[in-house]
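Backbone-to-sequence.
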């Protein structure tokens, strides 16, 4: 039901999402989709095995359902099995799978309704991946949390963290993108830095190093305005 049209039939052409006419943003995860509405509410639909729809249950839905308790979201990001939203004012809330602390609330317990990310009250953007999450702060720093075996949290460690940790050396970020097992950020001025898994060259620094535990500069990029991270490329 991740197309949100009330069915589970695949479609090779666009279908309208049921009942949504005032969306301001949308994000598609592995088997679910979420949108921010003009009112600030968030609605999600699709796969919900670990509560990634945020509706207080683990029942799938082929039509949009409002995320519990959120009425002032400014953006949303859907990952493989968890979702996060930035609220007006800068707080962050997440829901769904939490096996490695990717919800950022200091636990590894799944949640089918939103929980607050510990210690963050000034987020301007969030990006959710498979098992980790990163946010840009109003200070232009970046913080990440969750799975960290490849250094995708960027704090010069490979230890998982269920609470946000600061990315080393980043103090002027404008945007962050969490990829499969790596992360990239656009800096003020247009440079791009990446960290984490580099085995396929996805950190862009001219190497295929197993991992970069701290950010490295992407070669030859000096005027970027946006970045996105896929599973094994950027």
């Amino acid at each position: 039901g991740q197309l949100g049209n009330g069915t589970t039939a695949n479609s090779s052409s666009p279908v309208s999402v049921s009942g949504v006419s005032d969306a301001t943003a949308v994000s598609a995860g592995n088997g679910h989709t979420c949108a921010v509405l003009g009112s600030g509410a968030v609605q999600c639909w699709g796969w919900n095995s670990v509560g990634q729809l945020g509706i207080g249950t683990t029942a799938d839905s082929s039509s949009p359902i409002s995320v519990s308790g959120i009425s002032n979201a400014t953006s949303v990001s859907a990952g493989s099995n968890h979702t996060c939203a930035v609220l007006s004012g800068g707080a962050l809330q997440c829901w769904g799978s939490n096996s490695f602390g990717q919800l950022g609330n200091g636990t590894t317990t799944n949640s089918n309704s939103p929980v607050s990310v510990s210690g963050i009250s000034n987020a301007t953007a969030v990006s959710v991946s498979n098992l980790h999450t990163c946010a840009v702060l109003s200070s232009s720093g970046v913080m990440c949390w969750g799975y960290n075996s490849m250094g995708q949290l960027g704090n010069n460690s490979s230890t998982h963290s269920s609470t946000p940790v600061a990315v080393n050396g980043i103090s002027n970020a404008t945007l962050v993108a969490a990829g499969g097992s790596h992360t990239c950020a656009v800096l003020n001025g247009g440079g791009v830095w990446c960290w984490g898994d580099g085995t396929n060259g996805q950190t862009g620094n001219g190497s295929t190093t197993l991992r970069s535990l701290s950010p490295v500069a992407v070669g030859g990029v000096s005027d970027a305005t946006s970045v996105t991270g896929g599973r094994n490329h950027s």
